[in-house]
Amino acid sequence: MKALPHAEQVADRWHLMENSSRAFLDAVGKSMRQIRQTVGSNVVDPKLLTYAEKPQYEGYLRRQVMNEAIRELSKKGTSIRKIVRQTV
């Protein structure tokens, strides 16, 4: 603005829509967990996950399997040291 101090800054309709759409999608993406809780959906449908949420959900599933394996080993009386060796 130093070169043209009296110039008026304008934005075209396409850029306004692009920027507002991106901001909206970012806000929704960041709030998906809260949105699902509000809607009351306790069951996660992997087909409805965003690209960023899929790796998180897959990690969650892997942890669930690992936790169940650890619980089973613990119920059988396996020592913590052996559980660690078997599950690493």
How does the overall form come out from the CA principal axes? Answer: elongated
Oligomer: single chain
Low-confidence stretches: none
pLDDT average, as an integer? 86
Give the termini separation. Answer: 60 Å
- What's the order of the H and E elements? HHHH
Radius of gyration: 24 Å
User: How many strand segments?
Assistant: 0
* Largest sheet geometry: none
- Residue share in β-strands: under 5%
Domains (count): 2
Question: What is the helix content?
Answer: 55-70%
**Structure classification:** mainly alpha
Total of helices = 4
Topology:
Layout: H1 13-30, H2 32-39, H3 53-75, H4 80-87
Structural description of this entry:
This protein has 88 residues and is mostly helical. The protein has 2 domains: 35 residues; 45 residues. It is built from 4 helices and no strands. It is elongated and about 80 Å long.
Short description:
The protein is mainly α and 88 residues long. It has helices at residues 13-30, 32-39, 53-75, 80-87.
List keywords for this structure.
88 residues, single chain, mainly alpha, 2 domains, 65% helix, 0% strand
